[in-house]
Amino acid sequence: MQPIERVNDFVVRFANVNGSGSASANRLFAQSILRMGVPATPRNIFPSNIQGLPTWYEVRISEAGHLGARGGTDLMVAMNPQTWDKDVAGIEPGGYLFYDSTRIVRNLREDITVLGVPLTEICNREYQDPRQRQIFKNIVYVGALSALLGIDPEVIEALIAEQFRSKEKLIAPNRHAMHLGRAYALQHLPCPIGLQVHRADAVGERIFLEGNNAAGLGAVYGGATVAAWYPITPSTSLAEAFARWCKRFRTEADTGQGRYAIVQAEDELAAIGVAIGAGWNGARAFTATSGPGISLMQEFLGLAYFAEIPAVIFDVQRAGPSTGMPTRTQQCDVLACAYASHGDTKHVLLFPSDPHECFEFGAAAFDLAERLQTPVFVLLDLDIGMNERLCAPLAWDDARRMDRGKVMTATDLDGGREFGRYLDVDGDGIPWRTLPGTHASKGAFFTRGTSRDEFARYTEEGPAYQRNMERLLKKFATARHYVPAPVRHDAAQPTRFGAIHYGSTAPAMEEAMELLAAQGVALDVMRVRAFPFHDDVIAFVREHDRVFVVEQNRDAQLRTLLTVEGEIDPAKLVRVLHYDGTPITARFIAGAIADQVDAAKIVPLRKAVP
Q1: Global pTM value
Q2: Which residues pair with 433 in a beta bridge?
Q3: Does residue 87 sit within a domain?
Q4: 294-339 tens-digit pLDDT
Q5: Is residue 412 part of a domain?
Q6: Is 76 in contact with 41 (CB distance < 8 Å)?
Q7: What is the pLDDT of residues 434-461, one digit of tens each?
Q8: Could you say which of 376, 391, 406 is where a domain stops?
Q9: Rg of the chain's alpha carbons, rounded to an integer?
């Protein structure tokens, strides 16, 4: 079979052992592609144990700018004997296998090109220390790949210098290891191979950023001063990022005094309690967690909803239920967050699609929480949160001011304004509140989780309870006008088919649209960015005969929300579900939709609801 020949458009996958020190070398490889001016999207697929189990690192290289997972591997760097058969089987026909030829291997395919470099032999000859042999082996294969793919070695040298600038003595040894691999490949292998990296100018001004890091910075810019959290994969790095950014931006230069509080609580229940308490007291506060933490927080979330206390919850979703697959990605907490707690509750959800929106929504969530006096969820997932991705540069308007919502001051109270903590004065369902200590004798109220009247007085009278619950529903309807609007892309020609997606499905969906267009499938596409749904979302569904709802969970959770909250005929909403823990791919989406469209040409469709 003819070997694959592509320039700036292929997928490299590294198969390693967790704990082998490969992560920094693999990241160095991805960064070198970016420095060549070619967009690259790495994804780290790692186990939930500390070390010893298989780990993979995939780099999508795409000058066209496709940032989603494509599916398939063009070049497999097979460094783990445990996963050899699976890794070799995943190579595209005509692809390439790079391996450590010190070891004898079996089960090689005839339709791939095999590239062997005796990495262990080289390192055993060069280094005496066992740990050095393992660590530098990773750099040696990066050097060999640079020769095979045509990557400028000066780019890698510069990255090594940056990576070890605080430990200068490590720069020369790492450069030496890189050149060991490069020299061997140039002397013994056909360089370059059919997969090549050529310099380009396709990265532009975009930045390379992890979603959790961006969300932590967004919380700082959004005015958060209190974070309470309990460590849980994959949200821990968000809280840690917030701490780093606070140290930089919320610390007095002259005294070194921090203007923030970060509490590592004893569990998730305590963490949300701290955040709610701080929010009640007037601080902007949040917690960061994942699905199991959301499960523990249910009762406190109901209190915050019913007592109308602002708080922000960053939920970096992973595969569940129970412990599930804690280092795999899913979008499986949508319903758990939308209706968190017992009784009739509805919560505001934000769905960022990349690090830029993680920053943007991370800041906006605090305005929304205070404006609406309620918990607000920012739903990331592991694919966005723990992987670096190219995105538009972060921007902030220095003239922007925090929106504290409806807060009565002492002047308001002295001016004779009537205060009832749960009075709907403006007809939007949002009452006015006071902060503790606002006035010596006015504006006080008792915060409770039990039923009360408009003036916060305890009552179990049915009409008072019902008025309050209906006002909360009105407030939720008001939220539609404040949350981020959906983003819509229409096909070049009229079509009766639409697709809805959200969050981390965005880059794969964008590429799938191109694949479908090449097959003659026209599709209008809408990316939902928040719940409650904007009116445009429901209108979009009603405009089309069938709408594909693309999501990464088993039970079609966003589709359920659309059906229930939009009162939409379920037959119009077609499930496109991917939930094996790996990121959804463009090939999967395009294949699933194309199959359904073909079927729809035979099976009569229901007419659109007017």
Answers
A1: 0.95
A2: 407
A3: yes
A4: 999 999 999 999 999 999 999 999 999 999 999 999 999 999 999 9
A5: no
A6: no
A7: 999 999 899 999 999 999 999 999 999 9
A8: 391
A9: 27
